[in-house]
Amino acid sequence: MGACRHYASGWGDPTLVAMNDSEYAGYVKNKIPVMAFASQGGGYYSKKLMGFPLKDKILRRYESSKNQARLPIVKRIAEENSCTPAAVCMAFLTSNPLQSAAIVGCSTVTQLEDSMSLCDLTLTDSQLEALQNPAV
């Protein structure tokens, strides 16, 4: 869900590129599945909402006006569903009309359990729309 920047701004890997709105629409229309390499944005939403510091690498990749606008939306959805921001990120992918596989990069068992805590959570169309197109 995190709108990341092009690889040159922090990824350093030319095989990893951010998807733009036109590409997204094409993948949905043509039913082409995608891999969400950084499906939780390196913990951007979770850490930001809990007031934890973020590594410079994560800030370079994910700090944007669009992602900042998503923060209160992620918080609201997490509160409505009694879940964590990480679970909302996963639900965004699994509830989305775009066929995708989420790759999670957990460094602890606790993070993995958090990511999988509500794997059956389905977001509403209005929640998906709010996350996809936050008012910036």
Automatic annotation (TrEMBL):
Domain NADP-dependent oxidoreductase: start-end pairs: 29-132
One Pfam family matching this protein: Aldo_ket_red
Superkingdom of source: Bacteria
InterPro entries in the record: NAD(P)_OxRdtase_dom_sf (IPR036812), NADP_OxRdtase_dom (IPR023210)
The protein, known as: NADP-dependent oxidoreductase domain-containing protein
Organism: [Clostridium] leptum
Taxonomic lineage: Bacteria, Bacillati, Bacillota, Clostridia, Eubacteriales
